[in-house]
């Protein structure tokens, strides 16, 4: 049995475990095995583990001093897959990112200033950089205030995030296929690499309105099967290879919105998210400012108009997109989020379970 200092935080619409990289390194254990033991179990009830029973609660943020001179901290994201106990390091989480700056201040990596503290964060998984502004009146970190975001009923202190260098992080191109629109089978899609690799398609192409609840969509096995087959074909076209066992690319089904610019149902990748990922909202907003994409054609807004309001099952998310020059990769995105500290202490892991996990951890790797 080992103990590991940890903090549980809600970041955006997700919750996860926040660790100092130095604390993780001191265990001398492989992170893939350790995180699987702490957060995952083949028992669907997860009665002996620290994580929850879904992808939004089996997330880990690993934070340490930055390896880049232009940033203050590094943020490495890990997602534990509950079906295989495989730890996925290929993507990042914009929701947990909201808690990275407060965590860095809590652990003494960054000194607070008055009334705001600016923290430059390097997203290790994708190479993007984010400037995060946290309220610290009197040089004291504050979580309580009156800011509310979609998908979170409680109000909290606003956290402002400005993303740069987030386009082409995985493929080197904003549109990995070389085109803003492709035809996969009979469905027009936009394949895009902006914060997350994703494919965007109109909900109407699948015989749905896009207004359906996540529960309705997740019970539609025919729809999920069509999306899975579309995702595999699109992944090959994007140069991502065989996507079986991997969460990228994600899928966004879009439609006209009644309370925003565009409505989205976000799949991660084979279940509809109950709210929406920040990274996916940024991805969709980026596509929306390009007129020839599926999203751009749907909203029909003048080029350069901003911000973009994305409607999702629990509310809306506002993304401000700015293009810097003519390059597809020179795009900035700004979004407001919140975070809340939930627990600070030590988590215990029974490493005698390690031998029965090794096979399961490798099962997700193709």
UniProtKB/TrEMBL annotation:
The keyword Ion transport does not apply. Belongs to the PrpF family. SUPFAM superfamilies: Diaminopimelate epimerase-like (SSF54506). The keyword Isomerase applies. It comes from Mycobacterium numidiamassiliense. Keywords: Isomerase. This is 2-Methylaconitate cis-trans-isomerase PrpF (2-methyl citrate pathway). GO terms for molecular function: isomerase activity.
């Amino acid at each position: 049995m080992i103990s590991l200092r940890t903090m549980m935080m809600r970041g955006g619409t997700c919750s996860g475990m926040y660790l100092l990289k130095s604390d993780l390194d001191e265990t001398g254990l492989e992170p893939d095995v350790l995180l699987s033991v702490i957060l995952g179990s083949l028992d669907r009830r997860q009665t002996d583990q620290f994580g929850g029973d879904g992808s939004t609660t089996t997330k880990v943020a690993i934070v340490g001093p930055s390896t880049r001179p232009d940033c203050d901290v590094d943020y490495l994201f890990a997602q534990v897959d509950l079906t295989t106990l495989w730890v996925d390091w290929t993507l990042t989480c914009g929701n947990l990112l909201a808690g990275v700056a407060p965590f860095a201040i809590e652990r003494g990596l960054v000194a607070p200033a008055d009334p705001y503290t600016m923290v430059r964060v390097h997203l290790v998984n994708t190479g993007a950089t984010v400037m995060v502004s946290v309220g610290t009146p009197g040089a004291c970190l504050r979580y309580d205030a009156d800011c509310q975001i979609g998908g979170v009923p409680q109000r909290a202190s606003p956290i402002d995030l400005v993303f740069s260098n987030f386009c082409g992080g995985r493929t080197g191109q904003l549109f990995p296929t070389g085109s803003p629109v492709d035809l996969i089978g009979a469905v027009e899609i936009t394949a895009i690499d902006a914060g997350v690799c994703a494919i965007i398609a109109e909900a109407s192409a699948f015989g749905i309105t896009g207004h359906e609840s996540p529960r309705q969509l997740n019970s539609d096995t025919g729809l999920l099967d069509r999306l899975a087959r579309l995702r595999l074909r699109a992944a090959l076209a994007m140069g991502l290879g065989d996507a079986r066992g991997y969460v990228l690319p994600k899928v966004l089904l879009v439609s006209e919105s009644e309370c925003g610019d565009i409505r989205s149902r976000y799949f991660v990748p084979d279940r509809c998210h109950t709210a929406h990922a920040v990274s996916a909202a940024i991805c969709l907003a980026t596509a929306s400012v390009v007129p020839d994409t599926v999203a751009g054609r749907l909203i029909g807004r003048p080029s350069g108009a901003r911000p973009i309001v994305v409607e999702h099952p629990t509310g809306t998310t506002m993304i401000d997109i700015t293009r810097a020059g003519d390059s597809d990769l020179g795009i900035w995105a700004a979004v407001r989020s919140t975070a809340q500290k939930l627990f600070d202490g030590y988590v215990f892991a029974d490493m005698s379970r390690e031998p029965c996990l090794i096979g399961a951890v490798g099962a997700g790797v193709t």
